[in-house]
Amino acid sequence: MWQGLQILTDYKNSTTSTASADVSFLNELNNFYARFERGNTTTAIKTATTPDQQPLTLLSTDVGAALSRIKSNKAAGPDDIPGRVLRACSGELAGVLMDIFNLFNQTK
Question: Can you give the residue ranges of every domain in the chain?
Fold first, then answer.
C-alpha cells in the first residue's frame, strides 16, 4: 500500500544526511557568526552639545499618535506584546512611555 502511495505522489526518499556535513564548512560558519560576539575595543564618544541645542522632548500626543499607527495585524516584537494591545492602550501608555523616552533623551 505504501509503495503505491509513493508511486502516486512521486515520493523520493531523501539520501542526504546532515551528519556527513563538511567540518571545515561548519567551522567557517562558526567563525563568521562568532565575529559579532568578539569584544569591541572602540569606546563610545559622546558628542559635545552647544548651549543653543535643546534636547529632544516628546509630547504625550506624539507618543499616542505613534502608538495609534501601529498595525494591529502584524506579529508581536521581541517583547511579545501584540500590536493590537499597544494600539488599544495607546491613551494609557502614551504618558508613561513619554516620560521614559524623555528621561532617556536627557541622560544621553
Answer: 60-107
